[in-house]
């Protein structure tokens, strides 16, 4: 996967509003109720949590505001308030927990997700009683059923060896199906790398898709860090896409929340996606126009791989949408200019749209604590012009502010994760 992991992670808003669903009926209310705080940026994570809570046979309800947390948890007897969040949401969650916790003295506060995993100590200091570090499948249900446990909950093996025993979807809650978890890559801006790769089995994915089609959702998206690596290679991707089509689904693969690594974009792969998939764009992780910077990032591909991938996508009938990061630590002005040149070439020669990011070091990544390189005025002018022309999008402006915020949050002690990367950042 690429820089969408870096970004604020806003999820596409489903066209239909979620129905208020819960299983908090009196028959199962002897157990503590789980109040899941849902926000526009954590719906997919809430889906996963709901699946696990349902599987554990526990009552749950979704709260879409702090006021709803209070209303639902205070009338519930024993309750857990569950928050899953990413680092950009830290101030909002922090303020909400500080305001609500005194009003809900009997409630136990539980956090999980990308930020709490990266900074359990800082998360506990915010007022949470417990933090799930890493994958929740084998720790969440037993903890909630017992009603108590250590402050840091962690699967000793890092997560289950097999995803199939755990729900791939939740009835009535739209969202993508996770087909692959973990990545062997080690990109320094990413917290997903160097984790065991597990693929959900084809029958499980197809069964989930069939159920979604029955609910009236034919267009189905997938979560994977490396879309063309599903099942170990293109044959498995082909089998999956064909089976999804037979099940009546219109799969979206190689577009958010899945994307592709450039070196996997062969003419055969593009033809496969073009034949079976609903999407007419292909999201390619490009990241930099400098081979030295790509090596520093640990990407494992070259600039030429990015150009070839965009060319093949275009020739095969998919519009390339290429992630590029500006302001990588240690990037020289020449290297930043090379990324601008790459963007121009991709736009001009291959009809690409650029998804622009400004580097912001996130806790839990090897580059946490590293300083971004400022944007050159010429780079900024290019980004603004291309944005106006409709050939570039992305949250790069917000990420410039976020990079400053991250430094401030760390200096205030809101983030306590240790930085390990500074000495590694070369200057040329
Ligand atoms: S480590 Fe894996 S998931 Fe993360 S950006 Fe690199 S290839 Fe993508």
What does this structure look like?
The protein is an alpha/beta fold and 428 residues long. It has a six-stranded parallel sheet, sandwiched between helices. The protein has a four-stranded parallel sheet with strand order 12-13-14-15. Strands 7-10-11 form a three-stranded parallel sheet, covered by helices on one side. Strand 1, helix 1 and strand 2 form a beta-alpha-beta unit. The longest helix is centred in the last third of the chain and has 18 residues. The two termini are 26 Å apart. The structure holds iron/sulfur cluster. Iron/sulfur cluster binds next to loops.
What is the element layout, followed by pairings?
Blueprint: E1 33-37, H1 43-55, E2 60-63, H2 66-74, E3 79-84, H3 90-100, E4 108-112, H4 114-118, H5 120-125, E5 130-133, H6 140-146, E6 152-154, E7 177-178, E8 180-183, E9 195-199, H7 202-214, E10 219-223, H8 234-246, E11 250-252, H9 267-276, E12 281-287, H10 291-297, H11 303-315, E13 319-326, H12 333-350, E14 353-358, H13 377-389, E15 392-393, H14 396-411
Parallel strand pairs: 1-2, 1-3, 3-4, 4-5, 5-6, 7-10, 10-11, 12-13, 13-14, 14-15
Antiparallel strand pairs: 8-9
Iron/sulfur cluster is lined by residues 1-2, 5, 183, 185-187, 190, 192-193, 225-226, 261.
């Amino acid at each position: 996967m690429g820089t969408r992991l870096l970004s604020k992670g806003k999820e596409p808003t489903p066209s239909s509003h979620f129905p208020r669903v819960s299983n908090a009926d009196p028959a199962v209310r002897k157990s503590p109720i789980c109040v899941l705080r849902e926000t526009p940026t954590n719906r997919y994570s809430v889906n996963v949590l709901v699946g696990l809570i349902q599987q554990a046979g526990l009552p749950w309800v979704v709260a879409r505001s702090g006021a709803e947390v209070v209303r639902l948890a205070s009338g519930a007897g024993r309750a857990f308030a569950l928050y899953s969040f990413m680092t950009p949401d830290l101030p909002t969650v922090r303020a909400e927990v500080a305001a609500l916790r005194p009003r809900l003295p009997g409630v136990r506060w539980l956090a999980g997700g990308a930020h709490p995993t990266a900074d359990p100590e800082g998360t506990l200091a915010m007022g949470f009683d417990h933090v799930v570090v890493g994958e929740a499948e084998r720790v969440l249900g037993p903890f909630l059923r017992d009603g108590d446990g250590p402050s840091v909950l962690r699967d000793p093996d890092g997560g289950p060896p097999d995803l199939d025993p755990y729900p791939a979807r939740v009835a009535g809650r739209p969202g993508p199906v996770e087909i692959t978890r973990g990545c062997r890559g080690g990109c320094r801006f990413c917290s997903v790398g160097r984790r065991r790769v597990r693929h959900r089995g084809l029958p499980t994915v197809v069964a989930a898709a069939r159920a979604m089609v029955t609910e009236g959702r034919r267009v189905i998206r997938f979560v994977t860090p490396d879309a063309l690596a599903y099942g170990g290679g293109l044959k498995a991707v082909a089998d999956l896409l064909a089976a999804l089509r037979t099940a009546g689904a219109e799969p979206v693969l190689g577009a958010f929340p899945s994307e592709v690594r450039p070196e996997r974009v062969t003419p055969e792969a593009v033809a496969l996606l073009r034949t079976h998939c609903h999407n007419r764009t292909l999201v390619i992780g490009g990241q930099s126009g400098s081979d030295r910077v790509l090596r520093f990032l640990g990407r494992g591909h070259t600039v030429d791989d990015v150009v070839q991938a965009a060319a093949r996508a275009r020739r095969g009938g998919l519009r390339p949408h290429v992630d590029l990061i500006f302001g990588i630590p240690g990037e020289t002005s020449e290297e930043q200019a090379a990324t601008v040149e790459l963007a121009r070439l991709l736009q001009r020669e291959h009809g690409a749209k650029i998804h622009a990011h400004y580097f912001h070091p996130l806790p839990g990544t090897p580059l946490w604590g590293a300083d971004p390189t400022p944007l050159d005025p010429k780079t900024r002018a290019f980004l603004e012009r291309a944005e106006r022309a409709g050939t570039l999008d992305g949250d790069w402006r917000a990420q410039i502010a976020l990079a400053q915020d991250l430094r401030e949050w760390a200096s205030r002690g809101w983030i306590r994760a240790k930085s390990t990367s500074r000495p590694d950042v070369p200057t040329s």
